Structure formats: structure tokens, C-alpha cells
């Protein structure tokens, strides 16, 4: 309760600061809308359904792209950790691709897939997959060899070894890798949506883009807030339970005072 | 346990040799090591570090292949790891992603033909045997070093192996915990009669636990001498007879070592 109060106070102070800046009159209302204007925009956008629609479109792209990225990233990462051949080929490729900002894929995606959902998916997958490959590879390589030895003596091999020993043993790395992959997917999707207008669905990035075109700063800031909120929520809903499990089982992490 | 017995739990190591090659040098880890154990016998391998005792244990476990010679367990040639020979490691190697009970169940789940209820029953039975039934749902990191080794003991006993291989299982523990575990290991071994091969560099520990103490010396790793221990059980490590045995074996060990004693 006390923590909640402190957090509320902090954000209230931020809001107050914002309001004070608006009231000082130094900046034009077009460039700096008041918090209340933003609230009004969000209310209207929710009222006519456009915000929910855009959020749905964006989240669907994100989830599908992220799932595909994981589907390929996890096994490829495991492969890299066991096979020298895979490490020298896929491993090096992943390392290189991971350093490439995913926005750089957009021109290629546009030319290959045109203004379609596939272009969007492609960019998200490219943003996610490589970092998942690298995190999985690192995770599987860092497992104490004792676990695999103990499992082997008890008759664990092949698929059982991978799913019951190697994967759970590398969980600490996997989760940070999956979080990183998620963050990259999110960033690349936003970039793609701002850059590329496609007719099959308007996402949050498009609303952001139109906000700029129409000089509607209340819309821009409102959408940005929604994007931040979605990011926070996924962290709390998707990853926090895993991290709690991790800390409980492994006994890691310092309890905040 | 109603897992049908494969054989009696005999162990035969015949003239096993092993070399480890690195780019810079070749280490002769084992030189024609021969070791036999009767079913239900407790054999302790003693020697200084580098004498190849852990390598020998790995070869018996099937984790490492010998360069020469052969190993047979239950009358069958060892070609890889097998459920009839389970290993208990120095660092316990318990899985942190599983609870205590989950760790004991891990090996049981790989035994064919056990129902879920039966597995649970067996696992709890072994946790009770090592005195940790109250900790079944604890996490591994919440246990002390001694408790972890007890869980590791239960985990390797639960699938009912014929042969139990123990690789310095107590050397990372403090003296008091270790003495408590000497009692437990003797009690459980007397009850369950597994063939046990235990590797240690602690001569008194070997005398306390073993029916037979086998001496090894390094460079190259060789089996040198055997000492049958004729002391009544359960043995207390602090008795004069045991200390006397240990002194004799330590003297023999020094004589076999090429390097001067510490």
C-alpha cells in the first residue's frame, strides 16, 4: 500500500510538472498539449473504437511475429550451442544480424512483400529471432556440465535431455533473451508501422504517424502513452511471473527493501 | 522396490587404460586398472588428486569411454550410461529448476513401467530414508550442503540401481555434517545392500565406510594395493581401531607416491 502510494505520488508529480509547463505559456498549445487534452483525445479515440482497433491490429502482429521468432530462434540457438558447424554458420550470421537495427529491414521488406501484412511480420521476425538465437546459445553454453552429466547417468538423452534439462537449466538466460527479443520486436514493429502504410490494418504506429501529419500533438502523446502502457503490461503479465519463478527456485535476486 | 532385478550387481573392471590428449601434452590417466566388486560390496577408491580415481568412476558410469580394457556391470559390458549404475557427484548436481521432490522424481520418470502414484510413493519413501520428507517441496537453494547431498543420495537410489558410484560426495561438507552422513550412508547401505564404489582422498572416510579400501597412485593412475577392513558396523570414525587402520593405509599411500608426502 505504501509502495503504491509512493508510486502514485511520483506520477502525480510528473503530471503536475507537465501541467505547469503548459500553464507557463512558453510553448504553443499545438506543440505541447495539456494532460487534459490528451485524456480527451484518448476518451474520444476509445469512444469511436479507433484506439482499440489499432491496438488489436498492433498486438496481433506483435504476437504472431514474436511467436514465429521464438519458434525459429529457440531451436537454432540450441543447435548453435551443440554443433560447431551451426555455431560457425548460423551463430555468426545471428551475431551479425543482431547488430543490424531492425528498421534497416523495412526497405527490403517493402520491396519483397509490398505493402502487406507479410512485410510487417518479416520486420518483426527479423527483429526478434536473432537476439533469441544468441541468448539461447549463450544460455545453453553456460549450463554447469554437472547437470547434463547427472541427467545422462539417469538415462536422459535426446529430446528428453533438451526439453527437461538443457532448456530449464538455461532458463535464466532464456528469459532475458526472450525479454530482449520482445523489446526488439516491439521497436521494430513501431518503426515499421510509422514508415509503412498498409491497407490491411492501421496499427498504433499509423495513428502516431497521422497525429504528426495532422499536427495533433494530443494524439501523438496519447498514443505514446498507450505504447508505454502496453510495454509495461506485457512485462508484468508475460515476464514477471517467469522471473518470480526463477528467483524463487534459483534463490537469486535481492528482495527490495 | 519392485523393479525386476537385472542381475546381482557385480562389477568387473578389466585392465582399463585411459589417456587424455591435449594439444600440448598427453596425460596417462589410467594404466591397466583392474577392480572387481562383489554384489552388495562397499569399495572405496583412495588416492591423491590426479591418480585417476574419478576417471575410473566416470568409465564405470559409462560417461567416459576407456581407451583400452573393458568394464562389465551385472555381467553385461558397459558401453554407456545405464540405469543399473547411478552416480552421486561431489557438487550434488541437483537441478535448481525442480523442487527436492522433483529432483528425486527425475530419475524415476525415466524408469519404464512405473505409474505416477508408484513413482511418488517411491520418491517419498527415499526422502524419508534420508530424513528429508519435510523438505519435499522446498527449493534446492534453501537446503544446506549436507541436505543437498542427502537429496542427491535419495535421487540416485530411487531408480533402484544395482551399483551406486559416489564421486567424493562428502568432501565439500564440514566435518560434523560429514560424520552424520557416515552414519546415514552405512545405515542405508546395510538396509538396501547396493554395490557401492566411493571415491575419496580421505583415508579415514574410506576406512569408515568401505569393506575394502583400494589404493591408487598418480602419473600414471594405477591401482596399487587393497586393504580389507575387518571392523564391525556401524563404524564410528573416531575410534582407535579405525584410526590405526587409516594410519597403516596412509603409510602405504605415501610409499606408493612418487612425490614427497605433504
List the helices and strands and how they pair.
The complex is a heterodimer of chains A (257) and B (262).
Chain A: H1 2-23, H2 35-47, H3 50-82, H4 84-99, H5 106-113, H6 117-141, H7 145-153, H8 158-169, H9 171-195, H10 204-213, H11 217-250
Helix pairs in contact in A: 2-11, 3-4, 3-6, 3-9, 3-10, 4-6, 5-6, 6-9, 7-8, 9-10, 9-11, 10-11
Chain B: E1 11-21, E2 26-37, E3 42-46, H1 53-61, E4 68-73, E5 76-77, E6 85-88, H2 100-109, H3 116-129, H4 145-157, E7 163-167, H5 175-192, E8 195-200, H6 203-209, E9 212-217, E10 222-228, H7 240-256
Parallel strand pairs in B: 3-8, 3-9, 6-7, 7-8
Antiparallel strand pairs in B: 1-2, 1-4, 4-5, 9-10
Keywords for this entry:
A: 257 residues; mainly alpha; MetI-like fold; 11 helices; B: 262 residues; Rossmann fold; 2 domains; six-stranded mixed sheet; 10 strands; disordered N terminus
Task: Write structural notes for this entry.
The complex is a heterodimer of chains A (257) and B (262). By secondary structure, chain A is mainly alpha-helical. Chain A contains 11 helices and no strands. In chain A, helix 3 (50-82) runs antiparallel to helix 4, helix 7 runs antiparallel to helix 8 and helix 10 (204-213) packs antiparallel against helix 11 (217-250). The radius of gyration of chain A is 22 Å and the shape is globular. With 262 residues, chain B is α/β, with parallel strands linked by helices. Chain B has 2 domains: 1-84 and 163-262, Rossmann fold (3-Layer(aba) Sandwich), CATH 3.40.50; 96-160, no CATH class. Chain B is 34% helix and 24% strand. In chain B, the strands form 2 sheets. In chain B, strands 6-7-8-3-9-10 form a 6-stranded mixed beta sheet, with helices on both faces. In chain B, helix 5 links the parallel strand 7 and strand 8. Chain B is globular and about 50 Å long. Residues 1-6 of chain B have low confidence and may be disordered. Classes of the chains: A mainly alpha (257), B alpha/beta (262). At the A-B interface, helix 7, helix 8 and helix 11 of A face strand 6 of B.
